[in-house]
Amino acid sequence: MKRLRSSVMDIKAFLQCKKLRRSHRLEAKEIPDIKTEAMSSGSLGHFVVLPLELKFLILRYLTVEDLSILTITSKAMRNLIEGYRVLMPLIPNVLLQKLHVSKSAQVSPQEQQKSYLEIFHRLGLLTKRSTCLYATRDRLKFVNGILTKMMCNNADCDNLSQCLSLTCFGKFLHTVIAGWDDSECQRTYDAIIHHTCLLKNVKLVMSSKPGTHAQIEYEVRMFLRRVILDHCQSVVDRAFWLGRILKPWPMVHQARILFMLYGPEYNGEIQWFEFCENTPANPEQSAKHFGELANAIQILHGYRQEWSEDDIISVLDELTSSPDEWLAENVAHMLILCGDVITSKMLMSKAINGRTIELSSITTSFCVVCVKNSFSLSYVLGMIQNIIGAMDKPKDRLQYFNSLMDMFRELILDIHEFSDQEDGHENDMYFMVTALSEFTKKLVILAFKNMLTT
Fold first, then answer.
1. 34: which of 58, 97, 319, 429 lies 20 to 30 Å off by Cα?
2. pLDDT tens string 141-152
3. Nearest to 272 by CA among 319, 225, 229
């Protein structure tokens, strides 16, 4: 009885196993040889024996640039950092708040803005490398997720003109898609415009009169420039993205979108009627008003894969007629900045189509612009030779010259009759008369060249 009682009271009699229950994985880690073999054969080295939480904790002490470099060391390290990037937000909310400009916040200094751009460039590199094996669709989902966080309508942003959020996202986006082929870039553009209200807003603006939705027009301008266009590294890249923006629309809308992107703006409103009412006072103002528009036309003209010369002439013709006819002097300013090739094609097209009055008005304006900017009128004579060379009939050429001189007369009389010294246009008469005088001198020299040189 004593022996039975002792056996019943012994706890070991009820145990199936004489050793404590433990995980085989934990037991294996306690064996030095197995741990050494795992570290030597594992793709993560000493990292392989650490739990995932501790790995992520260590990665938190690394910079974005260090993480980006680690992603290209091995597939296992790339997977680890990709998991860390997905689970741990790399863009803190404090940084996002600094990018937006509220009423109480001050605009960041130039050096600070450069540092923000560099941060998002490094984030773009990290994302590009860590998602290199993902499908394009999955990578664009992540990009759109970042865009959602950085949109101004999701934050307290009261000054869109000074906000850095879209600019930083544009830097991030172009870093991620650098090296992608055209079809992937097209998918990127389609994904972005469908993820936002951009396409809807552009349709609204195009179906309304210019200036009706001033705030939406300015928002579209800022988004397309800061996210899509301003970070292009080459002329070919900018031409490609301009094509993505413009090609889906008819010519008249392409011209309006170009003006919305690069036309003059003041206090967050696009000055649609500026070129229909006023002319630049000096060469600096001319370059400021027309420089970006002319540069965009030149870029499209040089990108022959999608744009023919006829396309460029049609867009330019629509541009100088939108929303109303531009002043002839502004058309001359624009054409001079577009370059000789585009100018010649534009004027020859008008000559072939019999638009003599327009030609004479533009020619007189060329003379005035050359006098204002101290250019040689030899440029104007070259344009005249191209114009008359495109006219088949001598009657048309004579009509053009007669119309040209009549235009000088009418402009001088109009300035004399309607100008007011208080309007600040007292020099217009001087410039116009000087232009006529200099132009006449050039014509006289050509007409009597043999008699004047012998």
1. 58
2. 989 988 888 887
3. 319
Token pair for 291: 């420089």
Residues with Cβ within 8 Å of 49's Cβ and at least 6 positions away in sequence, in order, are 29, 35, 38, 39
Q: What whole-number distance in Å separates Cα of residue 312 and Cα of residue 246?
A: 12
In angstroms, what CA-CA distances link 192 with 92, 146, 166? 22, 11, 13
User: What tokens appear for 241 in the block?
Assistant: 């993205």
Contact 90, 33 (CB under 8 A): no
Residues 6+ apart with CB under 8 A from 147: 169, 173, 192, 195, 196
The number of residues making up the chain comes to 454
Q: Nearest-5° angle of CA 338, CA 344, CA 345? A: 90
Q: Which amino acid does the sequence have at 399?
A: Q
What are the beta bridge partners of residue 270? Answer: 265
pTM, 2 dp: 0.79
45: left (phi over 0), alpha (psi -120 to 50) or beta: left
State how far the Cα of 438 lies from the Cα of 376, in Å rounded to an integer. 10
Question: Tokens 């906000």 — which residue?
Answer: 163
Cα Rg, the chain, nearest whole Å:
34
Q: Which residues contact 38 (CB under 8 A, 6 or more apart)?
A: 48, 49
Positions in the chain short of pLDDT 70: 1-43, 45, 87-88, 90, 102-108, 154-156, 416-426, 444, 447-454
Residue type, 433: V
Identify whether 32 is preceded by a cis peptide bond (ω within 30 of 0).
Answer: no
With 0-12 / 13-18 / 19 or more C-beta atoms within 10 angstroms meaning exposed / middle / buried, residue 196 is middle
Q: How far is CA 72 from CA 157, 174, 430, in A?
A: 37, 20, 69
